[in-house]
Amino acid sequence: MTLPPTSPSTSSASPTPSALSTSATPAPSHRAWSRVTRRGLLGAAGAVAAGAVFAPAVTADTDPVAADADNGDTGPGTTSRTFPMTRAEAAVGEAPVRPAFPIGYVGVRWSGPRAATGGGIRLIGADGGKGAWQPLSEPGCADGDGGALLIPVNQAAGYELRAPDGATDLRSVAIDTTHGPLRRVAVPVDTTRVRGVAYLTRAAWGADEKLRFKPDGTENSPQTYHPFQTLTIHHTATKNGDPDPAATVRAMYQLHAVTNDWGDIGYHFLVDEKGEIYEGRYSGETATPAHDEDGKLVTAFHTGGFNAGNLGIALIGNMVDQGPTAAARDALTNLVRSLVRMHGVDPEAKVTYTNPLSGAKKEVDEISGHRDWMATECPGEVMYKELAALRKAAAMGS
Known about the structure:
Layout: H1 38-43, E1 78-84, E2 87-92, E3 103-111, E4 120-124, E5 134-135, E6 147-156, E7 158-162, E8 168-176, E9 182-188, E10 192-194, E11 197-199, H2 202-205, E12 225-226, E13 230-235, H3 245-259, E14 269-271, E15 277-279, E16 297-298, E17 310-315, H4 326-343, E18 350-354, E19 361-365, E20 367-369, H5 381-385, H6 387-395
Parallel strand pairs: 13-17, 13-20, 14-17
Antiparallel strand pairs: 1-9, 2-8, 3-6, 3-8, 4-5, 4-7, 10-11, 12-16, 14-15, 18-19
């Protein structure tokens, strides 16, 4: 999971998060856009597909709330659940770090060479004992200067880093997304769907909307919207076989919104190995995630310089040496198919993307990989080779 060095902006040089995922038939692409709010949609009878009551596949708790009890007001179609508040502590250099909470993830970034050669991490136990040095994995999706990683550390008490050879400006952040004080969230009762494809709302994976705001209460990256042009596939370059992908999504959200100072998570959607789809970038309360009421795409932060009008979907995991699971592949295909139908585009076409802000142009496939836009391994060698099959599958019936 990359932690790129720049902050979001409305310019063509907007940043990108490189490395630190049952459908019904979607409606035809010419269908008019709904102007019903998502909250109203959830409360309206028959507004979501009939079926089982929605139970989010995320870490949630029903114990008494220890903090933030004021943001879980329920409305029609919602129920109250609790999620742990995310805790984070930033550090610089190689000195040992011991925050006042168990660490679930360590975000690491550096300037200079992209390679992690010579870099390492060792964990510190509750008794102060230090484990063996482990090499840093290569940043599978880092682009630009230096590299970045998101490392799961299984509730370590602390850590110590060794910078990669030739690296400068070593920075890190300890993150806990599972053991913090509980905060109450209003979560949809029924399954939420985008054009027939089930997904988890931001509330359902425990997004803390306060992270989108600066200390003075102003929104860090207010939403801007542009007509859809193209769709880009990523991987997060995080752990495969992730036992708690929702916790990982919350960690990415912390990194992107706060550490990177983007004000939000960088992707529009994420897909995990079980085929759960997560709503990413906040787009207001319209009925269709990632879009405004007129069908324009909210600008996210996933492909630097080419974000406006470019929809980003990230597979959770590392697709360098292996492809997505069957469940993730099916979910990704269904989501992409629904989106290209929504926008009435040919998923197998070649297009000329034009940045509506800078005028910069790029010849790409309608469905591309991150590496088609810039120097990066994303979405991983194996997944990149699957893009042709994804385009073909998305075109079936569209």
